[in-house]
Design a protein that fits this description.
Layout: H1 7-10, H2 15-18, H3 21-35, E1 45-49, H4 55-62, E2 66-71, H5 74-83, E3 87-90, E4 103-109, H6 118-128, E5 129-140, H7 145-153, H8 168-177, E6 180-188, H9 199-206, E7 218-225
Parallel strand pairs: 1-2, 1-4, 2-3, 4-5
Antiparallel strand pairs: 5-7, 6-7
């Protein structure tokens, strides 16, 4: 298995330390307070795919969901087990090996871009989601990929895995082709969250995302499988 696919597994011992807490908390807020309504996932079977060390699995479990946490990294999943009581499984996003139509909800936050073909990953996710099931996604917007390129070039960030970002309209097109109805889509982060003193401004600008969502750094989607 190549090093790019296992990049996060190889830094599992410092994964949480290196994670941008502002971005993490923003995504937790978006998923569990903006895209989901209170009590929506209680008692529901939810798959946290590409779960990392389990921050989203932990929040879903706290809200009463029956959580399954899937990642390609065994060491990452050990971190999940330390955070919450979820069912863990080692698997590849592009070939899950999970029974079709098993889950009420699937959560994929900042994960589909880390495979060679994100569309294949979405198709695999669709298979394991029940009819009328809900898919929740956050993903970097392809128009901003240049920022990651230069950040890596000048060693502002350290990332050596796959990065195949998805466009705002491209993502909607794929989802509709796969039989999803997009219920909510919007952007967040108008520019990269490099300097922490600018985070309050980023939060403020997110309030106006409806005016420039296709131009924002990240995309958030809630869609239903028809």
């Amino acid at each position: 298995m190549d090093k790019k696919r296992l990049f996060y597994e190889n830094i599992s011992d410092r994964f949480d330390e290196e994670m941008n807490k502002y971005d993490l908390n923003k995504r937790l807020h978006i998923i569990f307070e903006k895209l989901l309504i209170s009590g929506e996932i209680a008692g529901k079977k939810i798959l946290d795919i590409g779960c990392g060390t389990g921050w989203f699995s932990k929040r879903a479990a706290q809200l009463g969901a029956d959580v399954f946490s899937v990642d390609i990294g065994i060491l990452l999943l050990k971190k999940v087990s330390q955070k919450c009581n979820s069912k863990i499984m080692v698997s590849d996003l592009t070939s899950l090996g999970i029974k079709d139509e098993m889950f009420d909800y699937v959560l994929a936050t900042e994960v589909i871009e880390h495979v060679i073909n994100p569309k294949v990953a979405l198709d695999e996710i669709s298979k394991v989601l029940k009819k009328e099931g809900i898919l929740l996604i956050t993903v970097p917007n392809k128009i901003w990929y240049f920022s990651a390129y230069f950040a890596n070039l000048f060693k502002i960030r350290r990332y050596e895995g796959y990065e195949n970002w998805v466009g705002y309209y491209q993502l909607q097109k794929w989802l509709k082709e796969m039989g999803f109805e997009v219920e909510t889509i919007f952007g967040f982060h108008l520019f990269p969250f490099v300097f922490s003193f600018l985070n309050p401004l980023l939060n403020k600008l997110d309030s106006f995302s409806r005016y420039y969502s296709p131009l924002m750094l990240n995309i958030a989607v809630k869609c239903r499988k028809k």
